[in-house]
Design brief:
By secondary structure, the chain is an all-alpha fold. It has 15 helices and no strands. The radius of gyration is 19 Å and the shape is globular.
Length: about 280
C-alpha cells in the first residue's frame, strides 16, 4: 500500500502544487476581506503589504537554499529508507494518513505555544505580532530565523513519523491555506463562525491571539485544528473589548515601525518592546 501511495507523486512537482494552492487561496481570501472586511484598517495595504510580501519571498528563498529537499522531500527520504514510527510498525492506509496529519498539526500547535513561552523564541516570534493590523498578508509575516527553526522542528517530526508522503503534502497545503484563512480580515456570519470553529480556527478566533492584551495574546495558538486550545486550556472565544474595539500588535515601541522591512528584521535583536507582565490575577 505505501509503495503504491508514494508512487502517486512520481513525476509531479510538489512545489508547483503548493504554490498554485497558495496563490489561489491567497487571492480568494484577499478578495473576501476586500469585499467583506471585519475591521477598518487605517494604515492600509499599501504600507504593510510590501514588507509582508518581501518577508515571505526572503523566507522562501532561504528555506529553498538551506533545505532544498523540503518537507515533502524529507517524507520521501524517510519512506525510501524505512525511517520513522509508521515504517517500523508497518502502518499504512487511512490510519497512517489521519495520524500523520493530526500529529503534525499538534506539533505546529506546540511550536507556536513554545514561541510564546520561551523568551528567546518569543523575541523572534514577536515580529509576527508586531503587525499593526491583521489580514491575509499577516500570515506571510514571519522572521527568517523563525522559518528556519520551524522547518527543522517540522522536519524532525516528519522523519520521526515516517508517514505517507501524500499526507505530508496535504498537511502543508492545508496548513498554509488555514493560516491565510484565519488571518484574513474577513467578516463571517456569526452562525458560520460558531460552526467552523468547532473543528478549525476561524479569523475571529485567531484575531484574539493578535490582541495587545497579554491574556489574549497567550491564547488560541492553533493554526488549523481548533481542538488543541480547548484540550490544553488556552481557548479564548472572544476579545474582551470586542473585535472592533480591540487593539492589535505589540504596543507603541514596535508596532508603529513594523511596516518597515529593516526594522522588522531587526526586531529580534531589539531590547525594546518587551512583553508586558501578565495581570496579577492571571
Amino acid at each position: 500500500m505505501q509503495v503504491e501511495t508514494a508512487g502517486l507523486l512520481e513525476g509531479l512537482d510538489t512545489n508547483t502544487i503548493r504554490l498554485a494552492c497558495f496563490a489561489g487561496i491567497f487571492g480568494l481570501m484577499a478578495a473576501i476581506e476586500f469585499a467583506l472586511p471585519k475591521r477598518e484598517q487605517p494604515l492600509g495595504r499599501s504600507k504593510r503589504w510590501p514588507t509582508n510580501w518581501a518577508l515571505v519571498v526572503l523566507d522562501a528563498a532561504l528555506v529553498r537554499f538551506i533545505f532544498p529537499i523540503g518537507g515533502v522531500g524529507l517524507a520521501m527520504l524517510a519512506f525510501d529508507n524505512g525511517w520513522g514510527l509508521f515504517g517500523w510498525l508497518g502502518w499504512s492506509g487511512v490510519a497512517a494518513w489521519l495520524l500523520t496529519f493530526v500529529i503534525l498539526d499538534l506539533a505546529v500547535w506546540f511550536q507556536h505555544w513554545a514561541s510564546h513561552k520561551v523568551p528567546l523564541f518569543w523575541r523572534i516570534h514577536r515580529m509576527h505580532h508586531a503587525d499593526a493590523e491583521v489580514d491575509v498578508s499577516t500570515a506571510l509575516r514571519f522572521h527568517p530565523i523563525e522559518i528556519l527553526l520551524s522547518f527543522v522542528w517540522k522536519g524532525a517530526v516528519i522523519v520521526a513519523l515516517g508517514g505517507p508522503v501524500e499526507a505530508v503534502l496535504v498537511f502543508e497545503i492545508v496548513l498554509n491555506g488555514a493560516a491565510l484563512f484565519n488571518h484574513a480580515n474577513a467578516s463571517l456570519p456569526g452562525w458560520l463562525d460558531r460552526i467552523l470553529r468547532v473543528l478549525i480556527v476561524t479569523p475571529d478566533m485567531h484575531r484574539v491571539h493578535h490582541s495587545v492584551e497579554r491574556r489574549e495574546t497567550d491564547s488560541n495558538y492553533g493554526f488549523n485544528l481548533s481542538v488543541w486550545d480547548r484540550i490544553f486550556g488556552t481557548y479564548v472565544p472572544q476579545p474582551e473589548r470586542g473585535h472592533d474595539g480591540m487593539e492589535l500588535g505589540l504596543g507603541p515601541e514596535l508596532t508603529p515601525k513594523a511596516h518597515s522591512l529593516p526594522f522588522s528584521l531587526a526586531i529580534p535583536f531589539l531590547r525594546s518592546g518587551r512583553r508586558p507582565e501578565a495581570p496579577e490575577n492571571q
